[in-house]
Amino acid sequence: MNMPYLKIGTVVLLLFTLLLPLSSNAQADISLSVSARSAILVDGQSGRVLFGKDEHEKRRIASITKIMTAVLAIESGKMKETVKVSKRAIKAEGSSIYLKEGQKVSLEDLTYGLMLRSGNDAAVAIAEHVGGSLEGFIFMMNQKATELGMENTNFQNPHGLDNHQNHYSSAYDMAILTKYAMEHKQYQKIAGTTFYKAKTMEGYWKNKNKLLTGLYQYSTGGKTGYTKLAKRTLVSTAAKGNAALIAVTINAPDDWKDHISMFEYAFGHYKTYMLAKKGRLTSLKGTFYEKKAFIKRDVAYFLNEDEKKLVKIETEMLTPEKKWERNAEAIPDVVGKMTFLLDGQVIEQVPIFYENKRNRMPQKSFQEMFKSVFQASVGGSLWSI
Fold first, then answer.
1. DSSP H stretches of helix in the chain
2. What is the pLDDT of residues 357-369, one digit of tens each?
């Protein structure tokens, strides 16, 4: 049913600061110098690109390939299963967790060995078990890449070795993959583990990610990589307060410094601002929708001091029909939308729901109610924590 929208108004936000979720392609203007041939810095909550340098260029990526291998292992639901190591797996060149042919190891142990020690033998063993064959797993890798919108990516192995010419990705695509990976609690745990003792084989492994093991206090995980052709590659994540970041560098002689510089710039110049809190929309007071219209989640965005003045919210509602006053069942579940703009560019849209038996308004905690009262007393639109 097509119905006209009634524009309630546009609100220019006068800001305080607060929490997280979103997604947008709005790119910030950050002046940074990095050693990498390709680099990107992304807000881990919204996916917003904060800094880029040749971020869409197709390049060899070495062992950061293993992020995709880990994701597929986790999503297989087979982490507790036992994997029998094949001859093909133990013949994988380069970094290894020293598997033996015929050895039986849990998929979980293999995934820790994959991520912490960059085991190429573990990568092949995982691929064969999860994909049914190495070739089947590579098909799965590319299928997932397509689903995620990784347009400049082609996988030809599960480890990133230089044994295939057309194995490549971009810094941007690897940021997309990492943002997706970080939505998995198990991936967060594995990638953020500094030491791990294997349960089904001999092995006590220290993570190769020096940012995580002591170089950077806000590091939460990531994956290192190196081959002769790809040079040094690195994906890392960091969190401070309510902000979460993803950095990717490819062919970076000074990658540790590159990542710290990008993180420190963002943490120093940006804050996460609450644009709208879940629950009842008080801006609709005096309308048909008063006390009945609500949004189901918080909306927030990572902004710098100058950008916060450029944020606007547009609220549009369906024009009420006369029959709705007599029959509440005729009122649609979704009765409007909130559009969030940064300097005129849409950064998010959320549906506005009408409270009924199917859609209940989110209940606020005592802390949230206290904040609402305080917010009203100071006249601000947003919060900082």
1. 66-75, 87-90, 107-116, 120-131, 134-148, 171-181, 185-191, 255-269, 322-326, 366-378
2. 888 888 765 445 4
